[in-house]
Amino acid sequence: MWDYTDKVMEHFTNPKNVGKIEKADAVGEVGNISCGDALKLMLKVSNEGFITDAKFQTFGCASAIASSSALTEIIKGMHLDEAAKITNKNIVDYLGELPEEKIHCSVMGMEALEAAIANYRGETIEEDDDNDGEIICHCFGITDTKLYKVAREQSVLKAEDMKNYCKAGGACGCCLDKIQNIIDDVQNSKCEVTNEETTSDALTPVQIMLKVQEVIEKEIKPMLEQDGGGIQFINLIDNIVQVKLKGQCANCPSSQVTLKNTVQAKIQEFVKSGLIVQEV
Questions:
Q1: Is residue 172 annotated as part of the catalytic site, yes or no?
Q2: Are 49 and 79 in contact (CB under 8 A)?
Q3: pLDDT tens-digit map of 6-65
């Protein structure tokens, strides 16, 4: 049984805006029933560009239903320009939290919204190109084009985590090496861009966030997992690194000591002195 928040359960057991809009002004469809998840998002849009109504039909799990319900509640009343900035993180934040293995459901909501807005504007959406390229994950029919996109947008660092965003590698696992190669390519490209754009020793907030994520994944997380614990990067706000302790670390009476002497110390050592780690 997944550990769902009360907000997720509320939107699963009593989903909002389920149904169909006749003569919808915009329609976005993503996913594939054969892969286990599919979502159709319908919008009514005013002459001024505001979303006056939003409804959805979905085939999927509790997280897919809750994410779709939350998305429609978030965007109703928004102008399309504002709605276009909605990401899957906004959906997760609205619900309080989603299990890591179900993050792909919020991504599906984000992609359905992108598709609907593109449909309304008569634009060709990049998602149409996701099926082009070499199929890497044969279990779910996911191409390298899709994997490169997810790796860039979601800052995935480990092949095993890719399944949380698009299911790739979540079945037989034969494609994990190829997925990791794609992730490494994206990370190397980011480093090259960073080296070209950086004119001083000062790091931008984005560069700091990427380095913090890398240190957590490669230096800190393996140490905590040896004792049955874990850690998840949440956000970077100014000099505050927000994390969530998991497993044995979450209930350990010495968790604050771990945060200061292990997590914070490593981040200050490898990223930047002055960064403060805070549990949320």
A1: no
A2: yes
A3: 999 999 999 999 999 999 999 999 876 655 678 999 999 999 999 999 999 998 888 899
115 and 28 Cβ atoms separated by less than 8 Å: yes
Q: What are the tens digits of pLDDT across the range 233-265?
A: 999 998 899 999 988 888 888 888 888 888 998
Report the amino acid identity of residue 113.
Answer: L
Q: Which position has the token pair 């614990």?
A: 229
Contact in structure between 129 and 144 (CB atoms under 8 Å): no
Active site residue 35: yes
Q: How far lies 57's CA from each of 30, 34, 176, 266, in Å? A: 11, 16, 32, 46
What fold does the segment set 6-127 form as a domain?
Sufe protein. Chain: A (3.90.1010)
CATH among 3.30.300.130, 3.30.360.10, 3.40.50.2000, 3.30.450.20 for 205-279: 3.30.300.130
Q: Which candidate in 35, 61, 139, 252 is catalytic?
A: 35
Catalytic residue among 61, 105, 139, 174: 105
How far are the Cα atoms of 3, 5, 150, 278, 280 from residue 252, in angstroms, in the given order?
Answer: 19, 22, 34, 16, 15
Q: Where are the domains of the chain?
A: 6-127, 130-197, 205-279
The answer for residues whose C-beta is within 8 angstroms of residue 273's C-beta and 6 or more apart is none
Instruction: Supply the pTM of this predicted model.
Output: 0.54
The CATH class of 130-197 is mainly alpha
Structure tokens of 274?
Answer: 């002055």
Query: Helix (H, G, I), strand (E, B), or coil: what is residue 106?
Result: helix
